[in-house]
Specification:
Length: 85
């Protein structure tokens, strides 16, 4: 089964990158990952953590949507997103 999508490792990673590059505000947020460390894996971990906090702020109550979003969120290759900056 092929999981790649539009040149990205999967749909979820492509979609995260698309949304994070959508406008100036989210682009600045994405680029701030580069300021936290020089190591790509640490940058990716920071971005993951920040986005995870936002997810919990948006949908903190356990429900179907929360579980589905967490499942999709877990598929995002944050290293690939950071490397695309």
């Amino acid at each position: 089964m092929q999981t790649s999508y539009n040149g990205w490792s999967n749909y979820e990673t492509w979609l995260a990158s698309l949304w994070l590059n959508e406008n100036e505000h989210t682009q600045r947020f994405l680029h701030s990952a580069k300021d936290v460390a020089t190591d790509v894996s640490k940058q990716a971990a920071w971005l993951h953590d920040q986005m995870s906090l936002q997810l919990e702020d948006e949908i903190g109550v356990p429900c179907l949507w929360h579980d589905l979003l967490h499942a999709a969120f877990a598929q995002i290759n944050w290293t690939e997103v950071v490397e695309s900056i």
